[in-house]
Amino acid sequence: KFPERVFSGVQPTGNLHLGNYLGAIVKFVELQRTHDCIYCVVDLHAITVPQKPEELKASIREVTAAFIASGVDPKQHIIFNQSQVAEHAELAWVFNCVARIGWLNRMTQFKEKAGKDRENASVGLYAYPCLMAADILLYRATHVPVGEDQKQHLELARDVAQKFNLDFAASIAANGFGEAFFPLPEPLIQGPATRVMSLRDGAKKMSKSDPSDYSRINLSDDADAIAQKVRKAKTDPEPLPSEVEGLAARPEADNLVGIFAALNGQTKPEVLSAFGGGQFSAFKSALVDLAVAKIGPIGAEMKRLTADAAYIDSVLADGAARARVIAKDNMAAVKDILGF
Ligand code: ADP
Ligand code: NA
């Protein structure tokens, strides 16, 4: 039995959005009350696709500010960025040698991100799930709050942990770690909205990398930007239904109702009992007010925090120092187990 510990990460790739917030960050905040939490700005993951060095630093600070502005307490818990703790890359190499090529070949995110020109994708993009397994297991974390899109990667992390425990069972026992060195980390796909879709296309998830700025509400958006994006959000000509069944074949309507419900701490039927039968324009106005009320203050606080780069950098340095203590300890144990 492993002591419970939470780990999760967000990539510093710009355009932090409502999906990241409702799918992951809200849950990060909640878990602080019951668990030791480690939240990581995963910059090593960011460079699996091209990044501009002059923008990366700002994005790292932006994600850090978003954690704090949303309510993560960097004194009680740990906030740091991945590249400051070298053991992430070190354990990822070990896991590259544990995971099987066939496992990685099944990863749908790689297929989506690599697109048609797979031969030209980086090796890092392909090995990304092994680095993610290392991020989690370096701290022997037991619980991982994520959005639905990360479910498959979490399953791979569990497979890696299990194979390591089995392959090295004798050495794990001989080194005094009992029957298993790594816990099998559990995904917590429990944010208020675990799969927020694009505002322009109900078949695509809201994403940092979508070229259309109107596809997402960014946490840094001001009231005007939020209002414009919600008003332009794709809908169909029908009025809102009164029952959730009526949302079945209407992905854009379903997504907006889901966003409203998540932001307001309601269920979809509750939202529909207030707005069902009415026109989209009235519902959208209410959604603008709600989103501005909930997201606006976070964006303003992020702006205030990022203006003080020295403060953000001190949070990251302090977090890295505390993360490193755990990481070094566990990596030393892994090396003993491997026979290094
Ligand atoms: P992105 O996928 O936008 O590049 P990340 O990979 O950094 O963002 O993901 C950070 C967290 O946000 C992960 O837990 C991920 O599952 C969650 N997430 C990302 N997009 C969405 C979305 N559209 N809806 C819900 N959760 C999401
Ligand atoms: Na993602």
UniProtKB/TrEMBL annotation:
Q: Which InterPro entries match?
A: aa-tRNA-synth_I_CS, aa-tRNA-synth_Ic, Rossmann-like_a/b/a_fold, Trp-tRNA-ligase, Trp-tRNA-ligase_bac-type, Trp-tRNA_synthetase
Record's catalysed reaction(s): tRNA(Trp) + L-tryptophan + ATP = L-tryptophyl-tRNA(Trp) + AMP + diphosphate + H(+)
Instruction: Give compartment(s).
Output: Cytoplasm
Please provide, alphabetically and separated by semicolons, the GO molecular function terms listed in this UniProt record.
ATP binding; tryptophan-tRNA ligase activity
Pfam families given in the database record: tRNA-synt_1b
Binding residues for L-tryptophan, per the UniProt record? 135
Q: Where does ATP bind?
A: 11-13, 19-20, 147-149, 196, 205-209
Q: Where is this motif: 'KMSKS' region?
A: 205-209
Class of this enzyme: ligase
The principal location of this protein is: cytoplasm
Q: Which Gene3D superfamilies match?
A: HUPs, Tyrosyl-Transfer RNA Synthetase
EC nos: 6.1.1.2
Any idea what job this protein has? Catalyzes the attachment of tryptophan to tRNA(Trp).
Quaternary assembly: Homodimer.
Q: What is this protein called?
A: Tryptophan--tRNA ligase
What species is given as this protein's source? Methylocella silvestris (strain DSM 15510 / CIP 108128 / LMG 27833 / NCIMB 13906 / BL2)
